[in-house]
């Protein structure tokens, strides 16, 4: 009888420890998720006035006005000659910026890299979770991406669209490879 009672006490202690461990994991997961949501919300709140009242910056003028002056195909060809194959994403930047300048408020051209920057944060979180990185690190890493200056600059500058676009493609490729869907 004494052995059975001892065994039940050990089972209860083990169950209590696993409940405590599970509770601790849930708490750290919530902390990371809350931090990511707060920082993402602040990121969008700071960016929103720029999107709503945005205007082209120095490089955006070239991407915006040059294609209107010489034609889109000539501007794309000149850009490819000038920058070569290393910056083919610049062609996407020119197309987005030119389209926004001609047909939409310029804030649309700013919103595209902003959305891509948020997508990079989510893809980074997903990749780290795919790699079984313990909580709250995937969420904190995503939040740090949104806090660092290159992320903010690239998010609000259409001429830097290649930064979040390249990172989004790279992270998506890594996730596909990791999950065996390549």
What keyword list fits this structure?
mainly alpha, 84% helix, 8 helices, elongated, 182 residues
Tell me about this structure.
With 182 residues, the protein is mainly α. It has 8 helices and no strands. The chain has helices at residues 2-53, 58-70, 72-83, 89-103, 107-130, 137-147, 149-156, 162-178. The termini are far apart. Helix content is 84%, strand content 0%.
The quaternary state of the protein chains shown equals single chain
Helix proportion range: over 70%
Low-confidence sequence ranges: none
- How far apart lie the N and C ends? 59 Å
Strands, total number: 0
Number of DSSP helices? Answer: 8
Order of helices and strands: HHHHHHHH
SSE map:
Elements: H1 2-53, H2 58-70, H3 72-83, H4 89-103, H5 107-130, H6 137-147, H7 149-156, H8 162-178
Helix pairs in contact: 1-5, 1-6, 2-3, 2-4, 3-4, 4-5, 5-6, 5-7, 5-8
Brief sketch in words of this structure:
Helix content is 84%, strand content 0%. The protein is mainly α.
